[in-house]
């Protein structure tokens, strides 16, 4: 089947890449063809197109172009319907049609394994809960939360970070100043001028850090483990520190001659407080300090 996907002298795979705008990687992994693109919608169109071609069995340049065009229209309909459903689910009326379309595109975008559209709806819910507790406008808080990551729908096409891109889009579509500040400032890039920006920052962090919310990249995972060990190792009396249980526990071995039991308990509290203040992590991190005194004598 991989041979049929590639085609004689690669003609099928070239036609597929041209029709869908993606790169196709066919390696030795059994049953796997990798579709690669910075545009998540293109990736989805290519994935669906390839599945249809393999199921149908007729794979040639003319058929590839025909199926790719049908699939593109199908995905565009899915984008519109998904955006409308997200607007309805989060109860944010009066959105511009362009924003509804961008929300639908977020359905195909992930951030560390977390679906960005589901994350945006979560943030909208959390913002309303906190706004209601504080006596603020829950409807405005929902709107700020739903739109806070809207720039991620086009950040592969437009220069700059997604907060600024999203704020620029919503400014052109006449969104309220509170919404614009919440979008532009939810990562601290600009100063918060309304309490809704602070709510979005808190809700964004809660949704991203909840257990199971995100799947970390390997580089970020290793960086977190190294930072845990470095934070513990810099304290006086620490001999070794090991991050275990995928970074959910740090075990610290101390010099028994330099630290007594009371100092060990204080060290555990100090390390835990530093981790809370300096690091971002899902769930909780357990700090275990091990102090052992061994006395050895030889009878000769």
How would you sum up this structure, described in words?
- The structure is a single chain.
- By secondary structure, the protein is mainly alpha-helical.
- The chain has 3 domains: 2-77, K Homology domain, type 1 (Ribosomal Protein S8, Chain: A, domain 1, 2-Layer Sandwich); 90-209, Hypothetical protein af1432 (Orthogonal Bundle), CATH 1.10.3210.10; 218-291, ANL, C-terminal domain (GMP Synthetase, Chain A, domain 3).
- Helix content is 56%, strand content 10%.
- The chain is built from 12 helices and 7 strands.
- It has helices at 2-6, 11-20, 40-56, 61-89, 97-106, 116-134, 138-147, 162-172, 177-185, 195-209, 218-233, 261-278, and strands spanning 23-25, 34-36, 110-111, 114-115, 238-244, 249-254, 286-291.
- The strands form 3 sheets. Strands 5-6-7 form a 3-stranded mixed sheet, with helices on one face. Strands 1-2 form a two-stranded antiparallel ribbon. A two-stranded antiparallel sheet has the order 3-4.
- Strand 6, helix 12 and strand 7 (286-291) form a beta-alpha-beta unit.
- Helix 4 (61-89) crosses helix 5 (97-106).
- The longest helix has 29 residues, at 61-89.
- It starts with a helix and ends in a 9-residue tail after the last strand.
- The mean pLDDT is 89.
Secondary-structure blueprint of this entry?
Blueprint: H1 2-6, H2 11-20, E1 23-25, E2 34-36, H3 40-56, H4 61-89, H5 97-106, E3 110-111, E4 114-115, H6 116-134, H7 138-147, H8 162-172, H9 177-185, H10 195-209, H11 218-233, E5 238-244, E6 249-254, H12 261-278, E7 286-291
Parallel strand pairs: 6-7
Antiparallel strand pairs: 1-2, 3-4, 5-6
